[in-house]
Known about the structure:
The protein contains twelve helices and 20 strands.
Amino acid sequence: xxEPRTWADIHLDRLKANxxxxxxxxxxxxxxxxxxxxxxxGHGATQVARAALEAGATRLGVGDSTEAIxxxxxxxxxxxxxxxxxxxxEIDDVIYHRITPTIHSLxxxxxxxxxxxxxxxxLAVHLKIDTGMGRLGVRPESAEEVLRAxxxxxxxRLEGIATHLSAxxxxxxxxxxxxxxxxxxLARAAALGLCVPKVHAAASAGLFLYPRAxxxxxxxxxxxxxxxxxxxxxxxxxxxxxxxxxxxxxxxxHVAAGxxxxxxxxxxxxRPTRLATVPIxxxxxxxxxxxxxGAWALVRGVRAPIVxxxxxxxxxxxxxxxxxxxxxDVVTLIGRDGAExxxxxxxxxxxxxxxxxxxxxxxxxxxxxYHSGEEAAGVEGAADSRTEPDALRTALADEPAAx
Length: 403
């Protein structure tokens, strides 16, 4: 069997453990939509989706219709939501595959209703309210008009109302404002006599930091993969990284002090040492800006600095401090080796980017190896997936949905 030179170990048992932590946090009255857009944040959408559903998620969220249809064609029958916008040519396929779209504007209501009627379907939809993200969604002042329009259709069923918190970890005051705006829209929906089974606002940070934002559905994304861009660890919330990125040494050589390394001769060795060539580069998703930024890999449990520039196909590491190093040794670029660890958050900080971008950028040459491990404990708290008759009354109450 062909063995790749560079690979990612994906620990699905750790993803299940992270989801179990979400479930324990939100309690049994709140449902989980696992967000697996961007190919499961680079981890592999189908495998991640199945693991999340096994561990207690009842719904899946994706970014566009292509991702949703791929999941359907892989045999997944659970509810799948397109959280982003649809383009016109996608609508027929979305309806055919019983995928739940998100409505962001008034003109989309009539279009979806007509297309659903043509297929003889009654389509569940969720309405997105833009309370301050400024990207997609109906503004609160226009929400009543859209709610009325949906209520007057014959082939659309308003299953949910949602918003997206833009700065839950950075700006508590603005997040509180967003929730106030959102609850005002929910109040208008209730006054119109609408039945809305699902209400959701909280994604990864919000579900941990704002109990009142959980309502009866949450949308964890990045936290499922054990990545913490929000500083949740300061709140005592520990996540298990799901992805480990590895390669191997394919070439070794001794060099003298002052040897130049990399394009532009950007690095000079400060002492006699050994350099190792590793077959991973920016084409594989290892960030190009990491050259000369203090990044390191792990070889035999020892830190080995990245020296010189990151190339398309290779990086060079200084292994002068690694005992008994040899060609073929495994190089850990993300993950743990012995007592040392390289985290996605470390690489993102050094590269001047966000942690999301690291796994999402992994190239097709990086083979994914999936590890199931032990079943995660503690998922018995998962919410009942049966649709509630109306979530507005609970959402408008003073108490959060989770006990």
